[in-house]
Structure formats: C-alpha cells, structure tokens
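Appendix B, record 7
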Amino acid sequence: MHYDVPYKTKQFFFVLIKLSILVGAFYFIYSKLAENENLEFNEFIAFLRENDTFSTKNFVILLILSIFNWFFETLKWQYLVKTIKPISFRDALEQSLGGATASLITPNRIGDYGAKAAYYAKQFRTKIVLLNLLGNMAQMAITTLFGVVGFIIFVNRYQIDVNYYRVVKFGFILLIVSLFAVLGVKQKRYKIRGFSFERVLGFIKNVPSKTNGKTLFLSLIRYLIFSFQFYYLLTMFGVDVEYNKAMVVITSMYFLASIIPTIAIFDILIKGSVAVFLFGYVEVNELTILSIIMLMWLLNFVIPSLFGSYFVLNFKLPQAKD
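Structure tokens (predicted):
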C-alpha cells in the first residue's frame, strides 16, 4: 500500500539535509585547520607573519587568480549544460559553488554530481550527471597529459631511483585490468559513477566535437591558472626556482595526487605529502610547501565552498517543467 509523505514532513527533511551538508562542511573545514597533523594552524599563521606574505599586492593577485579559476570552471559548466537547456552564468555559478560545498565530505567529491543534478527536474538529471562527468574527465585529461610529461622529465632530471621490476609488474596488472574492463564493457557490467561504460562512451560520442574541444580548452586555462598560482606562492615565500623547473614539479604533484582516491577534505593531506616529497628535490623546505598547499586549499576550495553554503541554504527543488 502506498502512502504519500505529508508536505510539511518533506520540507522538514529537506531542510535537515541542507543543514547537515552545511554543518558537515564547516566541521571538516574547522578540523583540517585546527587539527592538521602535518601543519598546526598556529604554526601556519606564525609562518605567514614571519614571511610578511600578505601584502595588498599579493592578496589581490592571489584573489584574482582564484576568481579566474572559478570563473572558467563556471563557464565550462554553463557551456556543457547549454547542450541540453539554456542556463545563465549566475545559475552555473550557483550550481558550481553549491556542488563544491556538497562535495567537501564525500569520497572523490562525488557529492558534486548529486548536488548539481538536484538543481534540475528528473528528466534532465541523468544527462546532468554525465555532463558533469565529461567536464571532470576533461580536467583529468589535461592534468594527466601535463603530469605524465612533467613526471618523465622529473624522473630523468633528478635521477629518481625507479624500481623497473615494479613498473613492469604494475604495467602487467594494468593490462590485465584493462582486458577485464573491455570484457565488462561488452557485457555492460563495467560502470563509471553508476553508469555503464558503454553508455558513457555513447553519451560522449553524441556530444558535439566543438563542445568537447571547448571543454578541454577551458580545462586547460583552469590548469594553467592554478598551477601558476602555486608558482606565485613559491615566489612569495622567497623560493628561488625557475618557472620551468618549478612547473615540472608542480605538474608531477597534481598528477600523482589526482590518481589517489580521497575524500575531498583529505585532499590537502595527499597533496601535502606528495608535494613535500617532490619539492625536496629542489630543496624547498617542508614548512613552506605545506603552507602553500594550505593556502591553495583555502583559496580554491574552502572559500568557494563557504560562498556555496549560501546557495545550499537557499536551494529549492526544481519544478517538473524546469
């Protein structure tokens, strides 16, 4: 027997979910600032003061870079969604920032998919999830392309002791996994974000090549912006390193950190560990690198998530006609 849930009950649970997302997001931000095992918050603040980091000029430049980072991310999302329905830049910004807030406490930022889909009526949600996946795949493709090139240069330049037996072993395992994946695709069992691989490929094929090209281009611009922002922070802390040399390490760092599955809130720890190891080869001290990772996290994820909390709090479910 089917029972309809009273409207007021639905509204109550809806508000409860929104508040839970906000409380969880704020708690995890606080915990990472106050209880960071790698970098204590008081030590972080003292280090910033000691280096006189935040002059007006530096603050403005860093803020502009972060704004441009999210501007192009929003533009990319707006452009992707326009393939199924018109959307304003403001709506795209609300969905991007709201998704950032919801993704804060979920593995691999999967909450971003659900949050963006929730802005649309049921008939659009599957396509919205796939478009979001397409946008993230484009960003990952750029990160991988630059990262692989950077890491190869890094390994050769610094004569990293590579265990080639393990590399061959890993390659063999990857080959076996790939074969099983191909078989899974043929049997429609292999899934990405809950969708069959065949369905994802079919969706991507139906997206105009112009859209795919522009998505990759916007992803590239974003990548260049936040990687330059990392380099600028290095110069702010007085690290004397050439741009080309720094970019080899930065691209390697983002590549290695991106292939490790994490809950978004632990992303700062993963990047911190990888960055400390890699930048050790160019003789940058650990405290400097951990402080830069913290600042990058605050500028490009925490602050946008705080703005996104406003949109989460004021979110209303769409009507069927939307």
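Remarks on this record: Strands lie at 191-192, 195-196. Residues 43 and 287 are 9 Å apart (CA to CA).
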